[in-house]
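Morning. Coffee machine broken again, so started the prediction first thing and wrote up yesterday's gels while waiting. Chain of 489 residues, entered below exactly as on the submission form.
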Amino acid sequence: MTPIFILSIILGYFLLLMGIALITGKGANNQTFFVANRSSPWYLVAFGMVGASLSGVTFISVPGWVGDSGFTYFQVVIGYWVGYLFVALILLPIYYQYNLTSIYEYLNLRFGPNSHKIGAIFFLISRVLGASFRLFLVSIVLQQFIFNAWQIPFEVTVILSVILIWVYTHKGGIKTIVWTDTLQTLLMLTAVSLTLYHLGNELNLNLSEILTENRFQNYTRAWVTGDLMVRNHFLKSFIGGVFITICMTGLDQDMMQKNLTCHSLKAAQINMLVFSLVLIVVTFLFLLLGAMIFLYADQNQIIVPLIEGRPKTDLLFPEVAINGGLGLEVGVIFILGLIAAAYSSADSALTSLTTSFCIDFLKLDQYSENQQKKIRKKTHVGMSLVLVVVVIMFKYILDRNVIDGLLTFASYTYGPLLGLFAFGIFTPFQIQDQRVWIVVILSILLILLVGNLSPESLGGYQIGYELLPLNGLLTFLGLLFIRQKKTTT
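Came back before lunch.
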């Protein structure tokens, strides 16, 4: 496919998104933008959340990771499911009980304004980094297969991507996103299914043969249960997966904002449980796709694309789909699936960042309705600029597989949120709210120290995703030291 043909597909897709935005944004106000007037059907939210959770990182990076790690990521995914149960049964009832727009308002009600600000700040940091990871990944693909041919700088690619997202989200906000995420999830799943079908035909394999064929043994190893010292041992991966979900879904305004658009707690809980089961199945399909891509690449002598002289396995899937001889149909649906996967998370991130900043920092409810709308629009533009800057920075500092980098960063940024919410939910204590900053800073410093310890200094023990619950535990213990004698009622 030529670059101009790929670009025409992308522009056509965005025209479709604009059509959805015009319909859903008709008569929109702040309540529409922030919580979709709490009228979203649970099944629509559940289906759309699949795409938002997987994103461009899963779409490309998980298949690319199979070459090095096999199916071991599935150990983390099993932990995800337990985490979703916790979110549905423990966290959602709290959010609905207090009728929250920003979930960090809970920390203000429970502890005070300093805890509230800390929660919101760490969400902003976490979500900016997470959304930027995802946008970075799709931007390097667009750069590799479209804009390099026209000698357009990477920075311009990023700016154009963010502008397109801003255009279709600036009016309808979360109401638009609930509907666009549904379309984007459908396209992403269609792309995976179609690619699997064509690869199976090319390799003369069906599903049962893929899981038993000797040729796949190098790629399908899923369980690491022997040496507890290794980074991806099952216990570490499972525990890490549980807490990653609790933090990156249950304590994340982006993901919870969609759930809070449901008309009732029961609808939101059904949405979460159905979504979690679908996500497990879909993630397994991505791992399966990765194994087939590597085998197909080996048989057809397709090399992993290079970025600045280094192999980038994240780009193998697009290389096979677009230039691997699977046909125009696969290439077209891959491009649509990639764009859908990337922007289904980036658009909701932009909306949730705007929501959190307006509610948690600017106290939007203190202004008149006209002023609120102006403030919201300015904040939306400001957050778009922040994403542009951070994505461009990643080009020069990121040196690992994108999904591994994303989950590692989460260990540092979501830990304080985990500790604060856990202390609020599971203890009756009040804290000295003005001292919470000290606890959080000390916890992060300790985790940075632990996270950078070499395996040799730990007797060969490799630290994995268990760093996140450890971070939360340190914050929790620190809060015990600043608790007040008077307990909550």
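The first strand starts at residue 306 and ends at 307. Going to sketch it on the whiteboard this afternoon.
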